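Need Putative secreted protein (Por secretion system target)'s 3D structure for a figure. Predict it.
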Amino acid sequence: MRKIYSLALALMAGATAFGQLTHTVNNGEFKITYGKTADWSIYDPQGAPTIYLHVWSSQTDGDNDKGNFDDSWNNSTSTLTWDATENAYVGTVNLNTKVFSNSNNTMPAGTVVQRIGIVMKDQSNGATRQSADKDLEGPTTLTTMAVVEANGKAKSQVAAGKLFTSAKGNVDLTVFDFGGKVIKTMKVNATGTPIDLNLNQKGLYLVKISGAGVSEVVKFAN
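Structure prediction for Putative secreted protein (Por secretion system target):
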């Protein structure tokens, strides 16, 4: 499932065999570092603070065991950002929470991912500059953070910024954006009344609910 979007990309592919693109992977999280020694032979960000990542993993490529997952070329939600401490671009593709913007799905818990494919580019919506396809090898198995029903209980939901859940007692809430970045964490005593997540920014999110006999992730728009 190779992504060739332009003649320029095809011509560039032969010159991108070496570059400082490294990653570690654990429990569905690909932690990526690029350009640590200022080697921009894979992709030259030209000093931009953000590199956008087009991400996919396809069953037809033998990349995973549960189906096809693909970002829209016009909506690349994963990023690498410049980290002055690391002196490199760093970021995480968390497959446990990532909603693929083209196939509009999230990988289910237990998916075995042998590798993912990425393209680095300069824009979320399309690209004027981009890398060739790069494979990031696994294997890795997703944790229970994929969106699931809550162990026989009614599925939780978020409406008007408030979480409605059947969980009772002390629970931990973790809110992620669709790229897997943690937005906030909360410890609450769930009593059956709606829980205000206090999110001011509009967007698409996931909230992980854990504790009190429940482990659940809910997708929602704020």
